Amino acid sequence: MNKKVSNTITYIVFLLLGILLLWLCFRKIDFSQVVDYIKTAKYSWMLLSLACLGISLFFRALRWNILIESMSYKTRVSTTYESVLIAYLANAVFPRLGEVTRCGTLAKKENIPFDKSFGTVVSERVVDLVVLFAMAILVVVFQWNLLGSLVTSWVNPLLEKISSNAILGTTIIVAVVLFIIAIVFIFRKQKHLISQNKWYKKIASLWSGFLDGIKSIFTMKRKGLFIIYTILIWGFYVIMTWLPFYMLPETSHLGLTEAITLLGLATLGFVAPVPGGMGVYHFIGILLLNGFYGISESAAVSFVTINHTTQMIFYLVTGCISYIIMFFLDRRPPVNEELGIRNC
Asked: What's residue 340's pLDDT?
């Protein structure tokens, strides 16, 4: 099957999944109540939240610069910030495209090789996953009374299934190990022939750039500043999630612990391969607010709808403005061209 056709089908499938989840979230809702909540919401809190989102993305750009500089490339802060904003716009429309987009814009604007910058983006994601994992542990510890029964209900059946199917599990592990050994053996025998393939060369180039990006975490000169930027990024994410609680009377009593919980789960919604996290974000947010915190269903629906819609508008506006500035208004030559660094 043609790759473009396959990608289109995949996109449509996940788009329909998002629409289905939206329908499940809204099918029993009294829309007159939702409209009342939307009309009476205090949007000044949402504007403050969006300001925090913009600041967090700015610190993300600064952190990215540190990784880029560790590979002996230079870039303007304005360029990386605009690239990040364009990437979030791309992710809102086409899942997984954001990382590719921001590396592509940086390659075009500042002559930084795509594979190198892509490696730094992967490095960023690894660090963010570690932060998310740490947040998840903190959430479970501080809200064990609320989430403990849910965690044990998931873990206990899994442990029972593993213990009762030890032979099957061992067989699967052995089969995987043997398969890997066979692949390595074939590759070593046919290494010269395989290395001449154009796809192998392209994958090898990307892999090399990926490794360089991972190494950049350890070779960067300003590790302390990198950690500070990471704390600031996620700190503003938490504040960004907490401030909108004050929009509605029903959610105004929720605090930072609830914000961290919502942030961690909502991130899963945006990570899901659904355009803009549509449906998945709504489903997770409503489940948490209504099912765990006892917020009325209409208020929960109104909260996640306002949150998601305003963030999508933010990404649309800032992404489009950044694209216009970067490719139509900013006529400055690439920094790496000025420094004599050539795209390899």
From this structure: 47
Q: How many domains does the chain have?
A: 1
The reply to whether 236 falls in a domain is yes
Please give the C-alpha separations between residue 148 and each of 133, 138, 155, in angstroms, as whole numbers.
16, 12, 10
Q: How far apart are CA 5 and CA 73, in angstroms?
A: 37
Q: What pLDDT score was predicted for residue 342? A: 45
Residue with tokens 């949150």: 307
In a domain, 189, yes or no: no
Residue ranges of the chain whose pLDDT lies below 50:
339-344
Residue 235 lies in a domain: yes
- pLDDT of the residue at 134: 84
Domain range spanning residue 264?
37-154+194-336
H-assigned helices in the chain: 3-26, 31-40, 43-69, 77-93, 97-110, 114-142, 144-164, 166-189, 191-195, 198-219, 223-242, 256-271, 280-286, 297-324, 335-338
Contact 302, 34 (CB under 8 A): yes
Distant-in-sequence contacts of 74-78, Cβ < 8 A, 24+ apart = 74/110, 74/335, 74/336, 74/339, 74/341, 75/106, 75/110, 75/112, 75/335, 75/336, 76/110, 76/332, 76/335, 78/330
> Encoding tokens for residue 203?
């994958």
Does residue 331 sit within a domain? Answer: yes
pTM for the predicted model, two decimal places: 0.79
pLDDT at res. 81: 97
Q: Which residues contact 196 (CB under 8 A, 6 or more apart)?
A: none
pLDDT at 14 (0 to 100): 72
